[in-house]
Write a structure and sequence with these properties.
By secondary structure, this protein is of the alpha/beta class. It is about 35% helix and about 30% strand. A hairpin with a 2-residue loop joins strand 9 and strand 10. Helix 3 packs across helix 5.
C-alpha cells in the first residue's frame, strides 16, 4: 500500500566559504527568509526544510503551493529519495516516478537506443523490462530510425520526445511532478497530455507543485502551502488556494 509519512523532517545545505563574507551572508539571509544557521564546525547552513510533519494516504492528490524558494522542489526531491533528511524521518512506501527532470541521465553522445536503457535504469527498470517496452517507447517517441543515431544529432523536440517516452513508460504508485509538462509540437503534445492524465489517474498518490490555481483546483484534493521550508497550511485544496491566491 502506497503511503508517505514525514515526522519532523529537516533538510539543510552547507554554503562553503561563506564565513567572513558578511555582505554575502546578509544577502543569503534576506533571500532565504532568515533560514541561515551554522553547524558545530562553523559552516554556514541553509535550512531548506524544517519541521515537516504530514501524512499522505492512497487516493490523495496533493498540491504544493508557495513562492519560489519556499521548499517545494526540495520536498519533491526528498519524496523521490534524491535527498535524505538530516533531521527527522521520511517513510515513503511504494514505487516512485519523478517527472521533475525528465532529461536526467540522457547522454548526448550515446544513441537513442542506448539512452532508453540508461534513463530507464535510473527509473529503476530492469534491462529485461526495458527490452520488453523498447518498441512501445520508440513508437510513442516517433523517432523511427533516429533511435540508432547519437542524441547530439537530435533537435530539441526529438530529445524531449525521447526523454518523455522513457520517463512515462512506467506506471508508478507515487507520481511526483513540478508543474504540468508540455512537450513537443501540437500533435505530440496532445498524445503526451493523454499519457500524463492517465498516469495521474492510475497513480495511487500524486504530488504536484504548481503556481497555477486552475491546475491545482482541477487536479488535487488537498494542498500544502510551504513558506520558508515549513508547512504554513495543510487543508483541502480549495481552502488553501483561497488563502494563498485570494478569493
Amino acid at each position: 500500500m502506497a503511503h508517505i509519512k514525514f515526522e519532523s523532517v529537516g533538510v539543510e545545505f552547507p554554503i562553503f566559504n561563506a564565513n567572513g563574507r558578511s555582505l554575502t551572508s546578509r544577502l543569503l539571509e534576506a533571500a532565504t527568509g532568515g533560514r541561515l544557521d551554522k553547524d558545530p564546525d562553523g559552516r554556514v547552513m541553509v535550512r531548506a526544510l524544517q519541521g515537516l510533519d504530514f501524512e499522505i494516504n492512497e487516493g490523495q492528490r496533493i498540491g504544493l503551493i508557495g513562492h519560489n524558494g519556499a521548499g517545494k522542489s526540495t520536498l519533491l526531491r526528498v519524496l523521490s529519495r534524491v535527498y535524505k533528511p538530516q533531521v527527522g524521518s521520511a517513510d515513503i512506501a511504494g514505487n516512485v516516478t519523478s517527472l521533475i527532470d525528465i532529461a536526467l541521465g540522457i547522454n548526448p553522445e550515446a544513441t537513442g537506443r542506448e539512452n532508453v536503457f540508461i534513463r530507464g535504469a535510473l527509473l529503476g527498470l530492469s534491462k529485461q523490462e526495458l527490452s520488453d517496452k523498447f518498441d512501445e517507447i520508440v513508437e510513442f517517441s516517433e523517432l523511427g530510425d533516429f533511435i540508432e543515431m547519437p542524441v547530439r544529432t537530435y533537435s530539441s523536440g526529438m530529445h524531449l520526445r525521447l526523454a518523455f517516452a522513457v520517463s512515462t513508460v512506467v506506471r508508478p504508485e507515487i507520481l511526483l511532478m513540478d508543474e504540468w509538462l508540455s512537450v513537443g509540437d501540437e500533435s505530440f503534445k496532445h498524445k503526451a497530455e493523454e499519457r500524463l492524465t492517465n498516469m495521474m489517474d492510475t497513480a495511487k498518490i500524486l504530488v504536484i507543485a504548481s503556481h497555477s490555481r486552475d491546475l491545482l483546483e482541477k487536479t488535487c484534493t488537498r494542498a500544502l502551502w510551504l513558506e520558508h521550508g515549513q508547512v504554513k497550511m495543510d487543508a483541502p485544496v480549495h481552502e488553501v488556494t483561497k488563502a494563498y491566491f485570494g478569493s
